[in-house]
Design goal:
Helices cover 49% and strands 10% of the residues. The mean pLDDT is 90.
Length: 116
């Protein structure tokens, strides 16, 4: 009995969250769940531990960050807050296959005053 899934073959099926026919409320619930998981797992803080030394290097300009499959943009927003807190500069781009997710991420970034 295997405890882990077989990852030797790539699964090319579209994620349910990327389906434009998915109910909007269900999609928003799924994104809230992902935000919760990202928060409790400390994902942004883990990433910041690797990004911060580069951003803090003398003479280094803004560190460019690309978040692929950003969902509601919670990770880029958290990184932006950490950079502001530490007085460091990031240039953040984010994308997602779901137009709905991108719209939600854009609204959240705008509300936070972030240019992501």
């Amino acid at each position: 009995m295997n405890l882990f899934p077989d990852i030797t073959a790539r699964d090319l099926r579209q994620e349910l969250m990327d389906d434009p026919a998915l109910d909007e409320a269900e999609h928003a619930r799924a994104l809230r769940g992902l935000r919760f998981l990202n928060r409790v797992s400390g994902t942004a803080a883990t990433l910041w531990r690797s990004i911060r030394p580069l951003a803090a290097a003398p003479g280094h300009g803004a560190v460019r960050v690309l978040d692929i499959a950003t969902g509601s943009g919670d990770i880029p927003l958290a990184l932006a807050r950490m950079a502001h807190r530490d007085g460091l500069s990031l240039s953040i781009e984010a994308c997602d296959a779901s137009e709905r997710a991108v719209n939600i991420a854009e609204r959240q970034a705008s509300a936070a005053g972030e240019a992501i």
